[in-house]
Structure formats: C-alpha cells, structure tokens
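Re: Re: token formats

Sure, here are both.
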Amino acid sequence: MILIDVYVNVNIESPAIRTRSALNPAAFEPRNPDYAARTRESFERQAAMRTLGATLAQVLPGQVVITLPWSEPLTQQHGFLHAGMVATALDSACGYAGFTLMPAEAAVLTIEFKINLLAPAQGEHFRMVGTVIKPGRTVTVCEGQAWAIDGGQERLVATMGCTLMAVIGREHIQG
C-alpha cells in the first residue's frame, strides 16, 4: 500500500492591496530612533532620484514607498517607463527600506538585485515599495514591488529581490 500525504498552503491576497511583507515589517525595531529623518535626509542628497522626479512618500521601519510621475524623457521607444528607470527606483526603495533598520553610523549599498519585469510600465505615475524581508547586522534582504497607476487602477509591473550591505567605518561612504 502506498500512502501519499499532500499539504497545500494557500494564501489568497489581493496584490493591489498588498503593501507590507508577509513577515510583517511593523514588527521591526529601528536601531536608530531618528531613522525617518535620517532616511529623508539621505534621499534628498540622491541626485538620481531627483533626476527621475521621485519623491519619498512613506518611511516606516523596514518599508519605504517612493513615487514618481510618468515622464517622457524616462521612457523607452514604446512610451513605457524604461526598465532601467524602474530598476533604479526599486533599488532605492529597497535600499532605503533596509537603511531604516541600520544603526546611525551605517551607510547602505546594494550588493545584488534581480528584477522581474511583469508588464509594461505604463501609467500616469508609479509607486515603488521596498520591504525588508530579513534584516541583518551586515547583510539585509529586501523585496520590491513596482506598481503602475493609471486612471485610479494599480497594476504590478515589476518585482525585485535585493541584497544590501551595511557599510560602517568608511570615511568616504556616509549614510
């Protein structure tokens, strides 16, 4: 007699509503009580985000939301937001999500990312959500989601897996 035991774990969740990780980043405690101000100050120094017209819309421990408008100079030949722009903004969202949980003396650098382009980035504006999955003393793992917003409808257009490094004690790399 052969007995096969199968378990199926089904988690149905609307992707249009999902903005927090299943691991609940609300449970993360920032190491720096001034994490939000520090994150905003660092973001303001980032020329790449200014070039994209991006704004830091939300800063929580372990989660950051960056928004940007559609802009013709940032598009590819079909009028969609270029994948490089999507990757750049998602990388920053993930990086700053990790940065919110790092100590005051740390800076953050991305050491790896992988992006999945799920649909053309077509919309009036875009919301990039970076969420910490696993914070660490040196290495932090995040996920990113890029949402296109058009006519009040949101569509997931890209996801990212991102690995970050906390940089401490390097004079030329500051938070």
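Second one below.
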Amino acid sequence: MVLAAAAVFMLMSKLPAQEPALQSNAAPTFYARQAFLQQVRSSSDSVALKGGPAEKSTTLAMALSAVFPGGGQIYNGKWWKVPIVWGAGGFFVEEWSRNNRHYNDYYDQFARSLQTSPPYGDTHTQALRDYYRDQRDSFAWYFGILYALQILDAYVDASLSGFDVGPDLGGSKALRVSVSVAIR
C-alpha cells in the first residue's frame, strides 16, 4: 500500500507541469491523465495497482494473534490453521495441568517423607517430584513456543498476502533454453 502510494507520487512528480492557462481546458487534462495512467501501467513497481490480492496489515495480524491465539490466522483467511493452534495449545495446557497436579502430589509426599526419615527423605518420591516438575516446565515452554510461532505465522501470512502465486509470474514466454552436446 505504501509502495503504491510512493509509486503514484513519484510518477506524478515526473509528469510535465501544465501551464495555468491550459488547466481550464478539459482536453489537455484528459491527455495528461491518459499519460499518467500509461506510465503507471508500464511501471515495474506497480504490482499493487494490477488488481492482485490486497496486502494485509502485519501489525493487526500480530495483535490479533497475541490477544486471541489463532486470530491472526482467521484475519489472513487461513482458517485451517486455527484448529491446529487450538488443538496443540489445548494439549500443552492439559499436559501442564496434569504434570502440575502430579508434581504437587509428590511434593507433599516428599515433604511428609522428610519428617519420617530425615535428612534425605524418600529418594524415589523426590525423583518423581523432580520428573513431574521438569515435565510441567517443558510443557510451559512448548506452549510459549507455540504462542510465539502462531504470532510469527500470522505475520508471515500477512506479509505474503499480496504475493502473486499465479501461473504467470511475469516471465518472458519468448525465453527458450536449448542444450547441445558435441561428441568428438
């Protein structure tokens, strides 16, 4: 959008200045507009003016994903990614919650074992407590990584929303490649 505005401004500044007396006449204005439109059509930086898909706001996509996980994907029209984000996020939250419950149970058991057999307590209970704490922390990291990746995905999708992926990418059809082999 900004590039299109900059291109229009640059092309407008390249147009020849009209005399004030000629501006009242409709014919020169019509021809000046036609010349301007011809320059815009021939400009190599007029991708946004060719009627391709409109670019989406990367800031809005990231903000929507930050506030509502999957919101940036909805904004970008990538609906199929939302169940993946929510499914993985729900799995990580559930596993964090389950491991936190086990950690709290073994934490209490280990605290009781310290009273019955000081100074080390039950080492098996301590090992299970540490295992569930590590698992809980790992799932918290997984959820944080998923959260950051879905924001990054929304940013990338919004950035590439105006990218032309059609079969004609503007290459010359006259270009031909030939290979010749000489055997001696």
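The chain has a mean pLDDT of 80. The CA atoms of residues 64 and 143 lie 18 Å apart.
- S.
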